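For this section, I looked closely at a protein sequence along with its fold in token form, which I now present.
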Amino acid sequence: MKKSKVTNPSASVEYDETYFERGLESGISCYQNYRWIPELTIPLAMTLIDYLGIVRGEKILDYGCAKGYLVKALRLLYRDAWGLDISQYAIDHSEGCCYLKEGNIVHNSYLTFPSEFDLCIAKDVFEHILDIDQVLEWIPANRLFVIVPLGDRVKFNVPVNNFDKTHCNCWDIDIWIEII
């Protein structure tokens, strides 16, 4: 059974400045002027802490952290959060505790990056990943919490998600549960 969308993500689309800052106007992504908005991100982080029962001292990995705003919010709420992303641009614009990941290599992390986590959060990430099985095997965490947009294999339920050229997994909840 083919699970991916009919269209393939463009290999030429990079997670660069255009993707994060001018995505809507360029027709590449749903991002526009991607920035720290504490009045949104801190309540999200607190909701995750409450819902997932994240206690102080637990190590949290934000897989696909982009510029690390959730990592920043969790740290402001005294949680030991770390981030990984494949975008050099996003990591260069993060405020620390976020690292570049290429394949199974985490760059510049040998002194500080934990080798294991209590929890991995993957928010709005798995819809971008072609080989999810490989990612799931690699994630060094005891628990996994995933937020993904849902769809019917052709179109996402929330129309704005159809605009991101890097979205390649447009699945319903049953397929996501089967995979994860």
In short: Residues 1-12 have pLDDT under 50 and may be disordered. Residues 44 and 158 are 20 Å apart (CA to CA). DSSP finds seven helices and six strands in the chain.
